[in-house]
Amino acid sequence: MHSPGAQALFTKLGKTKDFIKQGREKLEQTIKASGSRLCSYAERIAVLMDHSRSPEHNDQSSSPSDNINLGPFANPNAKPTDFDFLKVIGKGSFGKVLLSKHKSDGRFYAIKVLQKKSILKKKEQNHIMAERNVLLKNVKHPFLVGLHYSFQTKEKLYFVLDYVNGGELFFHLQRERCFREPRARFYAAEMASAVGYLHSLNIIYRDLKPENILLDSQGHIVLTDFGLCKEGMEPEETTSTFCGTPEYLAPEVLQKQPYDRTVDWWCLGAVLYEMLFGLPPFYSRDMSQMYENILHKPLQIQGTKTIAACDILQGLLHKDQKKRLGAKTDFLEIKNHMFFAPINWDDLYNKKITPPFDPNVAGPADLRHFDPEFTQETVPNSLIQTPDLATSSSSATNAFLGFSYAPNDDD
User: Fold this and answer.
1) pTM for the full model?
2) Alpha helix (H) ranges present in 34-88?
């Protein structure tokens, strides 16, 4: 039993978590709507809405009719009518994620269905390109979601992905408020392994947050959603695009300074802090204040955490990216930190370490770890009755040339 004081704290944290969940989807809209007001707080915040100097943003602002080559063309071995769409299990800016079952072999997949019109309207073709290309490189890593097929119809894009049903890390944090240190260390180690692998491919992730971290049926993490990834990032290379999720933005991103791979290690520190304490490290309900906290407020660590935990948080959340943990030797520096001393990294990679939490799912149809807000939604008829494949004469199809992917028969 918790003491009355502890119970009151958990209740307060729970309400705050609910607030975060409700407000997070509106934060980026608020940034745009409040740009002029934010400027009055600090000159550095004024650059948040200034995309004019960003080469990446200029690329994304090309005409919606521009053809974007999303990779090598392949005649797809899958189409919408090959699947039964069973349940909505997630939603995003451009569409839905559905639990689906292949009609011929009975295998379950998570199919991400995106609306072309929405993507073209917001000029996000390049982000879809990044996600599709990164997904093709992820099939070899145990903690990154894998792509099985991609195909398109006249109105939609389809990613056929690994289906995992242990729930979002955010879902479990909402329910349990925070984790004990061994459990947080285990998840952070698997995250670090996945991010380190992306860095080895010269990819920075840029959006590590609890909503993008899933648990599989055994309790291992699976990193998903690669729409904000930046490819071609050599160790010393920098970029400057303002992107990410407000609570997890590194100071250099907020300041619109050139940034490198260490933004991912800042995000790892922010997620680790949230796992240990229940909230992101510089969180405030006032967004302007939260940005000021990220830029200027010293990191506060309360409670009885180990020296190793305090030290790695201080290292990962260092406001100077050149002094941040991981700035020198990237993942090697992270894995050698004393906080991860109990981790055998080879065993971790090979999933020989028993996860600290068992989702205890009964099978693929067990949806207990998904938000009922999604699972109670009716599967759209447009998915069930959709035409099989796009024709090449469609302008929307031309905007996504080469999107289709199917593995080789010997894969």
Assistant:
1) 0.80
2) 35-39, 55-60
